[in-house]
Specification:
Chain lengths: 292, 239
């Protein structure tokens, strides 16, 4: 019983790590631009399919496909940004409509190119099991991408707190006009945050392709999950996103272990509602603090 | 010698609402120019228009003789024109130290940030004590000191200061005006918007009075008669 619980907690932790990698990108763009990119999950999925295409067609190891996927996802992000930045009025609501539409187009583009089949890596190493302390099981891919994801998020956290451009993202989040008075060019900073979100999305996409399965409708599932985690964390708090993601991962994993796999999504949503009921501004949303 | 700032027949506002109707004024290099006037006269809007935060519909803004009309805020900042907004415009979610670091964001200011920060902490020892505190938890006076310190980190050649004494206790106002007097003595070009006329006049080389989006009086600081200024100030308000 104890072992089963520990295993559930461990699996939840690993799942939370990859949820966080998806959600931090969403939170970063929201922080810099006050825009929720509803196509973010589709960008993650795009990376996963690029890894699939590279592996199935050219036999490239999914990890080696990361740079190729990054170029594609970054280009797609740049197009999303270029369209977003043309919105002149009511950016908050119009950006939702625009990015939602882009998400639908991307899902159907993926469906047209790669069909509705479910795919996962064919490289056995990723799905070989790894045993930790004789009791905890995981796939190599899950552990590798969990550690990689944490390192990447730590890098983003450091960048936000200790680099000139990272501080500018936080300043923009905090007070847009004041940031401009400090010489910040918002467009430059926004596009930079989009590119970092693209990097996180690429990494998450390849993690999903190697550790789980991908299919065209997964994009919006990821967007919704990332959005829930971001709100749960309190819009824009990076360490809040990590904790919120792990909470969602753990509660889903406990539900699968002790109740039923079909209740997995419900459990995450219930947690979300309970947290918002108790603390409407999220876990760490007292202030709109990015990376604090 | 060219003026630090020439504003020529400036018309500006927020979309459909025009605030500045026909503003012309100058500020000499190395001098302190004070702009006074009642609430809603357009003083803050004028500063924001100079910084490119408010669109200009007619007229011109020249800094050191060069037109800055339509320039981007960040380019204006890079050219050494700095606006110190009121204390509420600090970054509330960032620490005092990170706020100051943002002041050093313009490329030309990055190399000297350590020296400039030491200077700011000399000016305002209170900020040094609170360097790790989240700026949103500072008192009104401390927030104003932070806004000024952050502006000084930008190494201003022309420094626009918006209402630095607004809502502050007299003892804090004393401290802020002491610092402004020191900056003036150091030869900084200052354009100060202030409602506290009697205080502001003491450090003014030149005074402009604004009323309903226009400049209605321009005089040398030592020629201004406070009673007459106040009479004008209120007369137009009632009209």
């Amino acid at each position: 019983m104890i072992e089963l619980t520990l295993q559930a907690l461990f699996s939840g932790l690993l799942a939370g790590g990859y949820y966080a990698t998806v959600a931090v990108g969403l939170a970063l763009v929201f922080g810099a631009m006050r825009v929720i990119n509803l196509a973010h999950g589709e960008l993650v999925l795009l990376a996963a399919y690029i890894a699939y295409a590279a592996e199935s067609r050219y036999g490239i190891n999914p990890v080696m496909a990361i740079p190729i996927a990054l170029v594609v996802v970054a280009s797609a992000s740049a197009i999303v940004y270029a369209l977003l930045s043309r919105i002149e009025h009511d950016r908050e609501i119009n950006s939702l409509i625009l990015t939602f539409g882009i998400g639908i187009i991307m899902t159907n583009g993926i469906l047209t190119i790669w069909a509705a089949d479910i795919h996962s890596t064919t490289n056995p190493w990723f799905q070989d099991s790894l045993v930790i302390a004789d009791t905890l099981f995981a796939m190599n891919a899950e552990v590798a991408f969990f550690i990689g994801g944490l390192a990447l998020m730590a890098g983003v956290y450091w960048w936000l707190n200790h680099s000139w451009q990272g501080r500018a993202v936080r300043a923009l989040t905090s007070n847009r006009n004041a940031a401009m008075l400090m010489g910040v060019n918002p467009r430059q900073t926004e596009i930079l945050s989009f590119m970092i979100a693209a990097l996180l999305a690429t990494f998450a996409g390849v993690a999903i392709y190697t550790g789980k399965t991908v299919f065209p409708s997964l994009g919006h599932v990821l967007t919704v999950k990332a959005f829930i985690i971001t709100v749960l964390a309190g819009m824009g708090s990076i360490h809040g996103v990590l904790i919120g993601a792990i909470m969602i991962g753990v509660i889903e994993s406990l539900t699968v272990t002790y109740l039923s796999a079909s209740l997995q999504e419900l459990a995450g949503m219930l947690l979300f509602l309970v947290v918002l009921f108790v603390s409407p501004s999220g876990l760490f949303g007292g202030r709109r603090a990015l990376a604090r | 010698m060219t003026n630090a700032l020439d504003v020529v027949s400036l018309r500006a506002g927020y979309g459909a609402i025009n605030v500045l109707w026909d503003v012309s004024l100058t500020a000499e290099t190395g001098k302190t120019t004070v702009i006074v006037g009642p609430n809603g006269a357009g003083k803050t809007t004028l500063l924001r228009a100079i910084m490119g935060l408010v669109p200009v519909t007619a007229g011109d803004i020249r800094v050191n003789g060069q037109s800055r009309k339509g320039a981007k805020t960040w380019d204006t900042v890079a050219d050494g024109v700095v606006m110190i907004p009121e204390g509420r415009m600090i970054f509330p979610d960032m620490s005092v130290e990170d706020n100051l670091m943002m002041g050093a964001f313009p490329r030309a200011c990055r190399a000297g940030w350590k020296r400039n920060k030491a200077m700011v902490f000399d000016f305002f020892p209170r900020l040094a004590e609170r360097r790790d505190q989240i700026a949103g938890t500072l008192s009104g006076g401390e927030a104003q000191m932070l806004a000024i310190g952050r502006g000084l980190m930008e190494q201003p050649r022309v420094c626009l200061i918006d209402e630095p004494s607004l809502g502050l206790a007299p003892v804090v106002v004393d401290e802020i005006f002491r610092i402004l007097g020191q900056l003036r003595a150091d030869g900084m070009t200052i354009i100060l918007v202030e409602q506290n006329t009697s205080r502001a006049l003491k450090i003014a080389d030149h005074v402009h009075l604004m009323q309903s989006g226009k400049v209605v009086l321009s005089e040398r600081g030592d020629a201004v008669d406070l009673d007459r200024l106040h009479a004008l100030y209120f007369a137009h308000d009632a009209a």
